[in-house]
Backbone:
RNA sequence: ACAU
DNA sequence: TCATGT
């Protein structure tokens, strides 16, 4: 029998999705994907407790950062609509979290007939943010430590 | 440089 | 390798 000290496990395995111990399971994770950037963009949300997809939107022509932004706002609005107050949100996008806190999508995507529909969606999201307080914590998913966020589309490299 |  | 962003 070894006398070596055994470190406590850093990952929990009692959840549907294995999660790092530092990660809250009562949470939704969001992520965006873009086929080309700009290009056909989509985003989705995964419930970390069940692994179920909570919502999916797109594809629609846009950028990675617009998708990351809209995904967070969509999660906030849906939680509000469902009366969910105890969950938190994970996103891997520092940029999107900054935009949400500013309540403004600071994209440089050209505004053309092709992007007009998306700009309308952005306007609705910004309007929602201006008219609702953000009460749910939004946490950075630490990809380098934990691997890809569970909402990732798994299409990179 | 950092994060996508 | 390219693009989106602070
Ligand atoms: Mn992401
Ligand atoms: Mn991803």
Residues:
């Amino acid at each position: 029998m070894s006398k070596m000290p055994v470190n406590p496990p850093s990952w929990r395995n009692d959840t549907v999705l294995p999660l790092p111990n530092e990660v809250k399971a009562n949470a939704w994770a969001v992520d965006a994907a873009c086929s080309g950037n700009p290009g056909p963009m989509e985003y989705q949300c995964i419930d970390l407790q069940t692994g179920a997809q909570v919502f999916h939107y797109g594809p629609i022509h846009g950028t990675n950062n617009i998708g990351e932004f809209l995904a967070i706002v969509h999660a906030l609005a849906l939680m509000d609509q469902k009366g969910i107050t105890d969950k938190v949100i994970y996103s891997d996008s520092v940029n999107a979290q900054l935009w949400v806190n500013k309540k403004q999508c600071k994209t440089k995507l050209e505004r053309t007939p092709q992007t007009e529909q998306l700009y309308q969606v952005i306007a609705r999201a910004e309007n929602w943010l201006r008219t609702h307080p953000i009460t749910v914590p939004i946490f950075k998913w630490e990809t380098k430590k934990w691997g890809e966020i569970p909402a990732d589309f798994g299409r990179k490299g």
